[in-house]
Sequence to fold (313 residues):
Amino acid sequence: MSRAPVIAAWGAGVDSTAMIVEMAARGDPIDMVLFADPGSEKRGTYAFIPMFRAWMADRGIVSEIVRYQPRNFKHWPPYATIAENMLTNATLPSVVFNRGSCSQKWKASAQDAWTDDWEPAQRCWDAGDRVVKLIGYDASPRDTQRYRHAVGCEDPRFIYRYPLREWNWDRARCEQRIAAAGLPIPPKSSCFFCGSIKPDEVIELAVDELRVIVLMEARAKPRLRNVDGLWRRPVLGRRGAIPRPGTITEFIRERGLLPPDEIDRIVSEAPTDLIAFQAAQAALPLESRTSIGSWLHDFNRAADALRPIRSDS
Fold:
């Protein structure tokens, strides 16, 4: 390859999808598209991923799904997703505490680790050149803030391009481009329990996702000092803001998204059960420990089994 290899960081949301669609239409080279899966994206995102990967494959654009591989565990048992990470360590996503390390740990580092082993990148670096990385920040004020922060954290091994900003595209323009390509507009890409999730997004979540949110806030509550939960503090609804509580659990209760007795049972019993499970696993040899993902499967299966009993009572 006579030119530097080009990698697109794809978040499976509107901006990065529109970036890839337009670059394909312009004939601009993309040698690899990487999606970093934290294991806790919303269901709509997981439904969109194979659809758009097929669209890219039809146009000769190669893509890979990469994952962060946890190795050093602060607490046991081992975890494989960001949701399991939060539950294991009895904490909430870093965005709740005004830190942004979730994306760095579960997305950027996973993409960089994969790229380290990618032969075209290795040849490029050996020749003293830099790999081109495409980032889908648009020209809106919000993404301009993200862009300014990102510029100060750039890896010197890469040349970073922000095509949407070069074209002065905002989110609305991105949605128009995706629709013009005959594709559905992807949902906003984020973990289903992200502290930035909006109330209307919570309403669309599946039952098992709502349960994990209730468990996550209950598990972290004893350690919280300056925030109430995933939504930090209540919004009172002044100056046009939509009122909401500081915890998503309370919103779930207010909207009847889960039965009140199911919420109460999760809050009162599940954290204790999880702590007991962790203690039991910590006492076992490493090779014999069961993952927290297995515990979560049993947690949801038991909750499902109780639902018909409640509905008939």
Observations:
- The chain has a mean pLDDT of 91.
- The chain has two domains: 6-180, 199-312.
